Amino acid sequence: MREEFFIEPEENDVYSYISGRIKVLETMLLSAEILRKIASLPISDIYKELMETPYRMFLSGTDTDSISRAIFARHEAEISDISKYISPGFINVFFRDKLFFLKLKKWVFVFSDEELEGLDREIKNFLETGRGDFPPLFKEVFDMMKKEKDEPYKVGWLIDLFHVKYLLQSAEETKSVLIKEFYETYAEGKIFIFLERLSNFVLSHEIKEKDFMEMFILVSNFFADLPSVKKMRGIKSVKLFKKFSKENSSYPFTLVLGNSLDKEFRKELLKVLRKGRFINVGIEVVFAYLKLLEFEVENISMIVRGKSMGMGKKELDERINVAYA
């Protein structure tokens, strides 16, 4: 496997330096109190508040767009800095994964004579010819999406499911209990949310039941070992799936009972990340910090976007999720 996607478990002492540095960085994560304060401020004052945080180095203006750019620039800078001490495969697989999957989707739909360079050119060649040492799953999803390109909504479903499968497989390669637990929780929630939404599309006549069952069979094959998928064996219709989701009250099935489905899902993931606070050295320290930072960036971005759309403080408060204080 190319080093850009190769994950090799290493002894904890390899991470001694970066683990110590990250323990300091963790103290700079924004607390729930600060996030709620930010949610109560106008955009111009959010700028002032962020000037007292590590985001100050990336702020160039007080408007919504400038603040949004600064938030994501800080996130990318943090990842780039930490990647100097961590294998590129680990960073690309778990923290740049969305970027690669978006490129796969783009290349399915967009024919272009654009001359790609470097890694992009080599990945594109692998997708088209099968020659190259990249994750086989990339070509598998690319070929399946090309067959469905006349039905774009199915391409979107496939990329979602393959993305979860890729992360789950990659987590196994780390040999880390924490990382495997995180992505097992991630897969459980994502899959159920996916099926629940598709079943609602059937009920609202936006898609056909056969489309739902096609994806349900794919889920059953991809994630046969997950507890929730095992419980769903034997389901052969949307009606049976709805009956099942209503009768099961344990996570992740309670997610559909409220209006904050994604918020509750995030809470479950954050519960896993909290366990990282009790690990002092190892790849788990890096993983937990970067995931917490990712959640922080999502929180601030949500607040800034919400403000620009006229959301009130109460509505914003209800959307904030943190695993630290």
Question: What is the secondary structure topology, with strand pairs?
Answer:
Elements: H1 16-26, H2 32-39, H3 43-50, H4 64-82, H5 88-95, H6 97-109, H7 118-129, H8 136-147, H9 152-174, H10 177-203, H11 209-222, H12 227-231, H13 238-247, H14 261-274, H15 283-308, H16 313-317
Helix pairs in contact: 1-15, 4-15, 6-8, 6-9, 8-9, 9-10, 9-11, 10-11, 10-13, 10-14
Description:
- The two termini are 40 Å apart.
- This protein has 325 residues and is mostly helical.
- The radius of gyration is 21 Å and the shape is globular.
- About 2% of the residues have low confidence.
Question: What can be said about this structure in brief?
Answer:
This protein is mainly α. The protein has one domain (12-317).
Helical content class: 55-70%
Care to count the β-strands? Answer: 0
Q: How would a crystallographer describe the biggest sheet?
A: none
Count of domains: 1
Radius of gyration of CA atoms, rounded to a whole number: 21 Å
What is the chain-wise order of helices and strands?
Answer: HHHHHHHHHHHHHHHH
Give start-end ranges of low-pLDDT stretches: 253-259
Number of helices: 16
Structural class, by secondary structure, is: mainly alpha
Query: Hey, roughly how much beta strand do the residues contain?
Result: under 5%
In whole angstroms, how far apart are the ends? 40 Å
Write down the overall geometry.
globular
Please tell me the overall pLDDT: 87
